[in-house]
Design brief:
By secondary structure, the chain is an all-alpha fold. It has one domain. The protein has seven helices and no strands. The chain has helices spanning 3-12, 17-20, 33-56, 64-82, 87-115, 118-140, 148-155. The longest helix is centred in the middle third of the chain and has 29 residues, at 87-115. It starts with a helix and ends in an 8-residue tail after the last helix. The structure holds zinc ion (2 copies). One zinc ion (ZN) is lined by residues 49, 53, 119, 123.
């Protein structure tokens, strides 16, 4: 798949309405807080690890700022879950993880295409898998929403796996 097709597929379909969607706090959502928290911690850990590994490989070290931003978003999300933030807040925070992850992906891909470091590939894909598990938990809180099928496609980072 070419870079252009990926860019169009991911960026043009990313709905900014997602972050602004108002979900009433009395909606029967966010019921699986324990799962969301567990997966959020996994994501924060994999993002943190990815940032640390980047620093040990000179060709990738310039990506650290983007990885740091992603880690901060994942950390904030995890704290918001632990602190009992509203569903609306969590969904908006989750969108910020998606935004930071998508931006980082294009920088990582550019470097990846030149160096193909296997440790980077493994750690990035582990992180994407963790992201995807959080996404499924966040989506599950809103499965009664008719438009969720469309959003599942647009917010999936599964298309961002490095090969
Ligand atoms: Zn927040
Ligand atoms: Zn590693």
């Amino acid at each position: 798949m070419s870079m252009n097709i990926l860019t169009v597929a991911v960026l043009s379909t990313a709905s900014f309405a997602f972050a602004q969607r108002v979900v009433a706090d009395d909606e029967p959502a966010c019921w699986n807080r324990a799962n969301i928290l567990f997966e959020a911690q996994e994501l924060e850990e994999t993002a943190h690890h990815f940032g640390e590994i980047l620093l040990t490989i000179p060709e990738y070290a310039h990506l650290e700022a983007g990885a740091e931003e992603l880690t901060e978003e994942a950390s904030h999300f995890q704290e918001a879950v632990a602190g009992g933030s509203s569903c609306h807040h969590l969904q908006a925070d989750f969108y910020e993880i998606y935004r930071a992850g998508s931006a980082l992906y294009y920088d990582v891909l550019d470097t990846h295409n030149r160096y193909h470091n296997p440790h980077i590939v493994q750690d990035w894909n582990d992180m994407v898998a963790a992201y995807d598990r959080v996404r499924l938990e966040v989506d599950r809180t809103r499965e009664h929403v008719e438009s969720i099928l469309e959003e599942r496609k647009t917010l999936g980072l599964d298309k961002l796996i490095l090969r």
